[in-house]
From TrEMBL:
Protein name: Four-carbon acid sugar kinase family protein
Record keywords, A-Z: ATP-binding, Carbohydrate metabolism, Kinase, Nucleotide-binding, Transferase
Annotated Four-carbon acid sugar kinase nucleotide binding domain residues: 263-423
Region (Disordered): 425-449
Organism (species): Kocuria rosea
Length: 449
């Protein structure tokens, strides 16, 4: 039996969970679609596009994922959400996810909610949530990016209030605040919140790894009585759970450079991603914007034009970025607004799969959390495992042998994740000055193990 299991509401977030487990020496596997759950892992997870879904589609997806994990015993079940908690009552509702957890595990009692990830600049204090941007910590409702998120803008920082708008029962949401750690009252306060009646969930403060370690210990203690213990949180709590098992980080090997041209596909409207795309283009990557006509719906002729642009650039040895928008100021974004995540994810995934199958690249970056699940599904991916640590919340992974991208290095990056030079780091080139010349003239060999 796996020690820990998780269901993630998007793929890039799921890759962070894999990364945190791998970081502490645990074998972690993520499955997609109807792929069988492996029996050889310490951590087993399922990822889907729930963060981009609403209504019946959301319920159907989350129920199915929870049912599969319920049949695979584990000590702790993590319902993985973004560390910036972006959700709304109608899109990717975390509150609705909590209600579905109660439907599946009716005897569990109030569920802890802990999205903090201090190592990633995400903190919860007195139930208000904070996130770092450009070296500054911002309250969630004043965050330069999250307050104006294109799909789920966050206008409230108190996570109790956020959840209250998403839960149908109207009951209050509990909390454990920072002083409980300093006074030694955390175990008692935890027991009180877990025994609370008429309450669906409670928010747990954390501004340090030590706080998350206390939560992880409490979860594993609960699991000794009745499993699984359930927590709603980010990669931060998976790291804490892993520390209860191994306590020390494993040594990372030197990161290999790309073997040839790198392909990055992006549907993220984040300003963070826009800066990363700009940095790549400034350093010689070929810029391939998706035509607005193709963004509106399938167009075989336009798709063929896009594929030819990408294959020609890769075949000439150039790194390439393909994108549906470069930030919310892109004229295409102004004309279309947020796009259908399933459609654009499949569109970008098909391009990446075709390039890998043709042997034009074996190093692929997928940018954008809402669309990543759809993109990898289009690539035929059914299983992911971490091969290398990279940047926080974005490890390098490999797919199963039957995927179109088998043998390729894959990095999956959420919109708000990573340094400006992330793509050049992935390519193994962070030393060149801005130029219009290609940074790599070698053609990739076919993707193979």
């Amino acid at each position: 039996m796996a020690l820990f299991s998780f269901v993630a509401d998007d793929l890039t977030g799921a890759s962070d969970v894999l990364s945190q487990a791998h970081r502490y020496g645990l074998e972690a596997v993520l499955v997609m679609g109807d792929a069988p759950l492996p029996a050889d892992a310490d951590v087993v997870g399922i990822a889907g596009p729930a963060r981009s879904l609403a209504g019946a589609a959301f319920d159907t997806r989350v129920r199915a994922d929870l049912a599969r994990l319920a049949a695979t015993p584990s000590e702790v079940l993590l319902y993985k959400v973004c560390s910036t908690f972006d959700s709304s009552p109608t899109t990717g509702s975390i509150g609705r996810g909590i209600e579905l957890l109660h439907d599946r595990f009716p005897d569990h009692g109030p569920i802890s909610v802990a999205p903090a990830q201090p190592g990633f600049g995400r903190y919860t204090a007195f139930s208000d949530h904070y996130a770092t941007h450009a070296g500054q910590v911002h309250r969630l409702d004043r965050h330069p990016v999250m307050s104006s998120h294109p799909s789920t803008p966050m206008h409230e920082a108190d996570l109790r209030q956020v959840l209250a708008t998403q839960l149908n029962d109207g009951v209050p949401v509990g909390s454990i605040h920072l002083p409980a750690y300093d006074t030694g009252a955390f175990p008692e306060t935890w027991a009180q919140q877990r025994a609370g009646t008429g309450m669906s969930a409670f928010v747990v403060d954390a501004v340090s790894d030590a706080h998350l370690d206390a939560l992880a210990a409490a979860l594993r203690q609960d699991a000794q009585v009745s499993s699984p213990a359930i927590v709603v949180g980010s990669g931060g709590i998976m790291a804490a759970l892993a520390r209860t098992v191994t306590s020390t980080e494993t040594l990372s090997r030197p990161l290999p450079s790309a073997s040839g041209p790198v392909l990055a596909v992006s549907a993220s409207a984040s300003s963070v991603t826009a800066a990363q795309l700009q940095d790549a283009v400034d350093h010689g990557w070929i810029d391939v914007p998706v035509d607005p006509a193709l963004l509106q719906g399938p167009d075989p002729d336009q798709h063929a034009v896009l594929a030819e642009q990408v294959s020609s650039a890769l075949g000439a040895g150039h790194h390439v970025v393909v994108h549906t928008t470069r930030g919310s100021n892109d004229p295409r974004y102004a004309a279309t607004g947020p796009l259908d995540a399933a459609y654009v994810g499949e569109l970008l995934g098909r391009i990446a799969a075709a390039m890998a199958t043709a042997g034009l690249t074996r190093d692929i970056a997928v940018l954008g959390g809402d669309t990543s699940s759809h993109a990898l599904t289009a690539m035929g991916v059914r299983e992911l495992r971490v091969t290398d640590q990279f940047v926080t919340a974005a490890p390098i992974c490999r797919a199963d042998d039957d995927a179109a991208v088998a043998g390729c290095r894959l990095v999956l990056k959420g919109g708000q994740v990573g340094p400006t030079d992330l793509l050049r780091r992935f390519a193994g080139d962070t030393t060149t000055s801005p130029t219009t010349e290609s940074v790599n003239h070698r053609k990739a060999t076919p993707c193979e193990q």
